[in-house]
């Protein structure tokens, strides 16, 4: 595996740990991943829900908790760390500014198109900051819209881009119909994004890595997807089943116990399809059960809380704490393959070993082809 460079940043391995919200990826997991040579990511989504004053002043709670987790991560590692943000968050602007003020290495932004730099942050700050910026997209079209907007507004463009396919966990940027369509699979959309970004690389004389995400589980998967022209991968599901993951044991065990048929798509209260591990809580919701709740903060812009059968933020917070009777786990399509909890370092060793085995297998296959047997296959 080659290293991953984003601007002046360099991660020894081309693996980014996906940001998993409402408490799943905080300082423990992010620091362990960064220390092992990847890029560790703190999710700012609902990060303050573990604070006692969240519902009375959720913006202050989120900001305070994000600052604390960034600083704790920095105390534990000298590796590359990032923050994951959602454009759909009510306090997106404030959290964006907080991440830049704290000088994290990179900010990843998804769940919406970040067409402009948030209020309160000057373009000059972003241009000259140590902190890099990477939008998360689900199509080449979305990448082009974002890069065009930044190019015209600021004569500046993002430093990297993550393209997430339909096999990811959590909220998805696809319709249910698109999830199984070949043209929307990661192997199809990743090269399209690489092609779009290459034009901006030439214009700005700048290397802009494209990172592939969604359904990447093994080192063999990493080897395969890097052949599409991307520079690295983002993985979330595999990092849940680690000792260092910030979620409670009960949350991790839901992955260990899951079967292939348990991985399902739900219609989230925020108006998007989401991939989850189906459990009794979700079955009750599906049967028409409504969980009473109030919404004093409206933490997500797109949540239709007045018609929702439950508060998704509360359900995810309870799950993070291990209360799976009143919550559920988001998970990628391959979550059912997880069968043990290991350390982050052992996970990286496993990924590297699988990658090298896949690489060796491909080399042996090419070497075994008779001379003159036709053109070498495209890989």
Q: What can be said about this structure in brief?
A:
The protein has 2 domains: 244 residues, Aldolase class I (TIM Barrel); 86 residues, no CATH class. The chain is built from 12 helices and 14 strands.
Structure explained in plain terms:
The chain has twelve helices and 14 strands. A hairpin with a 2-residue loop joins strand 1 and strand 2. Helix 7 (219-226) crosses helix 12 (344-367). It is globular, with a radius of gyration of 20 Å. The protein has two domains: 4-247, Aldolase class I (TIM Barrel, Alpha-Beta Barrel); 250-335, no CATH class. With 379 residues, the chain is of the alpha/beta class. The model has no long low-confidence stretch (mean pLDDT 92). The strands form three sheets. An eight-stranded parallel β-sheet has the order 3-11-10-8-7-6-5-4.
């Amino acid at each position: 595996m080659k290293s991953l460079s984003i601007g002046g940043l360099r991660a020894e391995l081309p693996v980014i740990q996906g940001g998993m919200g409402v408490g799943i990826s905080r300082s423990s997991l992010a620091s362990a991943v960064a220390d092992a040579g990847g890029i560790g990511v703190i999710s700012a989504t609902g990060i303050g829900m573990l604070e006692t004053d969240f519902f009375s002043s959720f913006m202050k709670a989120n900001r305070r908790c994000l600052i604390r987790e960034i600083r704790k991560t920095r105390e534990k590692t000298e590796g590359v760390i990032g923050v994951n943000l959602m454009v759909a968050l009510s306090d997106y602007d404030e959290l964006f500014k907080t991440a830049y003020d704290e000088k994290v290495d990179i900010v990843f932004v998804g769940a919406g198109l970040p067409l402009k730099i948030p209020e309160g942050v000057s373009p000059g700050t972003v241009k000259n900051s140590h902190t890099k910026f990477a939008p998360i997209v689900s199509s080449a079209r979305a990448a082009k819209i974002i890069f065009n907007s930044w190019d015209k507004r600021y004569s500046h463009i993002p430093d990297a881009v993550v393209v997430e396919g339909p096999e990811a966990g959590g909220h998805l940027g696809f319709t249910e119909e698109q999830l199984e369509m070949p043209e929307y699979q990661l192997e199809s959309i990743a090269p399209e994004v690489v092609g779009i970004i290459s034009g901006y690389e030439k214009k700005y004389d700048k290397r802009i890595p494209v990172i592939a995400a969604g359904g990447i589980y093994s080192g063999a998967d990493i080897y395969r997807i890097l052949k599409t022209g991307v520079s690295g991968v983002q993985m979330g599901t595999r990092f849940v089943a680690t000792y260092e993951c910030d979620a409670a044991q009960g949350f991790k065990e839901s992955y260990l116990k899951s079967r292939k048929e348990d991985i399902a798509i739900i219609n989230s209260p925020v108006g998007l399809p989401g991939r989850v591990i189906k459990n009794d809580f979700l079955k009750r919701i599906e049967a028409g059960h409504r969980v009473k709740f109030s919404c004093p903060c409206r933490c997500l812009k797109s949540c239709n809380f007045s018609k929702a059968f439950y508060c998704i933020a509360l359900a995810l917070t309870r799950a993070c704490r291990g209360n799976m009777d009143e919550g559920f786990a988001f998970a990628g399509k391959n979550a059912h393959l997880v069968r043990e909890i290991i350390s982050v370092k052992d996970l990286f060793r496993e990924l590297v070993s699988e990658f090298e085995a896949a690489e060796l297998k491909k080399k042996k296959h090419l070497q075994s082809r008779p001379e003159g047997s036709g053109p070498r296959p495209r890989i």
